[in-house]
Specification:
This protein has about 250 residues and is mostly helical. The protein is built from eleven helices and three strands, in the order H-H-H-E-H-H-H-H-H-E-E-H-H-H. A hairpin with a 2-residue loop joins strand 2 and strand 3. Helix 4 packs across helix 11 and helix 6 crosses helix 7. The relative contact order is 0.14.
């Protein structure tokens, strides 16, 4: 009985001492602890979501949802990479990220060139664009760029290149309210994504940088010239092996 009484009187003191220890913890240290725990929680959550989307197609994206609210609906139909014309996959890579198979999510050479030229055009890889489209929001804020830089290596590790390209081609915007290559192929040319010709594929890829101001079915002289460059680039990456990571 005496031992039990000793334990019961000791327990509240221990709790009280622990409480005082927490109170005595410097404010800055408490803030840092909360910050790093929050960072860890966000990182664990993002890894879980990336793992989930490796096998399950993203039902929507923030940008697609916001455009659907603005326009009253969007056109999108998911299609597997195997059901997309191979020339379309090559055209998208040639247009947006010719070294897609050679980098780990960031094209360092393109980034350096963009910095030297004072522009960020061409520095964003398909990996980064996929992360932005699927997990984040559009805009050029430093916060979004920081999240993009943190999530891109996670996607590169967990997904393979075929999955990255498949998701990209299914969520990219090709016209106002038109998302994904299947909807775009039907919208512009009345065919499925698997039936696209080299010319049609290159014209679709040419609108990717500015889908709201360019038309794949009514190309301007500039767009026609750009599409011809993309067709040439698609043939080049097929010949030199830079399409090997996603070609079946």
């Amino acid at each position: 009985m005496a031992k039990r009484a000793a334990k019961s009187t000791k327990s509240p003191r221990t709790k009280k001492a622990a409480g005082k220890a927490v109170e005595r913890m410097p404010f800055g240290r408490r803030v840092r602890r909360i910050f790093w725990r929050s960072v860890l929680a966000v990182a664990v959550f993002m890894v879980a979501v990336v793992l989930l989307f490796r096998v399950i197609n993203p039902p929507t994206t923030y940008y697609m949802w916001s455009e659907s609210r603005r326009l009253g609906g969007v056109d999108q139909e998911w299609v597997r990479l195997e059901d997309i014309a191979p020339v379309m996959a090559r055209a998208a890579v040639a247009a947006e990220d010719a070294n897609f198979c050679m980098h780990w999510g960031f094209d360092v050479a393109a980034i350096r060139l963009a910095i030297a030229q004072g522009s960020n055009r061409g520095a964003s890889t398909i990996d980064q664009q996929t992360v932005k489209n699927v997990f984040l929001w559009h805009g050029r804020t430093y916060i979004r760029k920081a999240f993009e830089a943190g999530i891109t290596p996670i996607v590169e590790i967990i997904w393979d290149k075929r999955r990255i390209l498949e998701v990209y081609l299914n969520v990219a915007e090709f016209d106002e309210g038109v998302f994904g290559v299947e909807a775009a192929a039907r919208h512009y040319f009345g065919v499925s994504a698997g039936a696209l010709s080299a010319r049609q594929a290159s014209q679709l890829a040419a609108v990717l940088p500015s889908p709201k101001t360019r038309s794949a079915s009514r190309p301007t002289a500039f767009l026609g010239k750009r599409a011809a460059q993309i067709r040439s680039g698609a043939a080049t990456i097929l010949a030199d092996g830079r399409a090997n990571c996603f070609q079946s």
